[in-house]
Hints:
The chain is mostly helical. The chain has two domains: 44 residues, no CATH class; 53 residues.
Amino acid sequence: xxxxxxxxxxxxxxxxxxxxxxxxxxxxxxxxxxxxxxxxxxxxxxxxxxxxxxxxxxxxxxxxxxxxxxxxxxxxxxxxxxxxxxxxxxxxxxxxxxxxxxxxxxxxxxxxxx
Length: 114
């Protein structure tokens, strides 16, 4: 197997695009690729990625706001999960108390005829 060059997956990660985009670029002739024998048959190897520029999107103000919102929601989620755990424990406690209270009761017909 020829290990030189980039696989489609590696090229996609390097360029910051999906594997389908890399395949489409190969088909359109935007990327030069060569079919080589692989473990499971023929696979593409891409040799000239340095010519293509990476797609790195700078963080914009909207992205920073989104990150802040995600962090705030994560914090709120952990707080609410703690409250939910406490509420579930309270429900279990009340259910066990109710079971103990109902254990001593007789049905109405047994009280009537005894």
